[in-house]
Design a protein that fits this description.
Layout: H1 10-16, H2 53-77, H3 81-113
Length: 125
């Protein structure tokens, strides 16, 4: 199937979980499982391998936010440990799960846009 439409913006398509080429079809079958292909334009998603990239970004971003807020709360209010557990454990879970799918979609869309491939060693000297 030949696609002749305009290319989708990789960030908005990825955040919405849409096809990186047409921006219409669904990118995911489940929560994190990538669909085999786009139902709208037919793009084969076998190229999509985001690896651990989304998880690394989720850890860095959510860790910065949660630890920063936790330290600020501890210094400012000095609450008992159970208050930290009640507030910051659910916050960590919500932030991590909430950011993982959109960041995976953005990574896959950027892979498509930049034609990213696995590195290969050249036979040339």
């Amino acid at each position: 199937m030949q696609y002749h439409g305009p290319e989708a913006d990789p960030v908005s398509a990825g955040l919405a979980g849409r096809c990186p080429r047409c921006g219409e079809g669904r990118l995911f079958d489940g929560f994190l499982r990538v669909a085999p292909s786009c139902r709208s334009c037919g793009l084969d998603y076998r190229f999509a391998d985001s690896g651990d990239g989304p998880a690394v970004f989720v850890i860095l971003i959510s860790g910065f936010l949660v630890v920063g807020l936790l330290l600020w709360t501890e210094i400012r209010y000095e609450p008992p440990i159970w208050v930290h557990l009640v507030i910051f454990l659910p916050m960590t879970l919500i932030l991590c799960l909430g950011m993982l799918r959109p960041l995976k979609g953005v990574m896959i869309a950027l892979q498509y846009r930049n034609r990213a491939e696995e590195g290969r060693l050249s036979d040339k000297p």
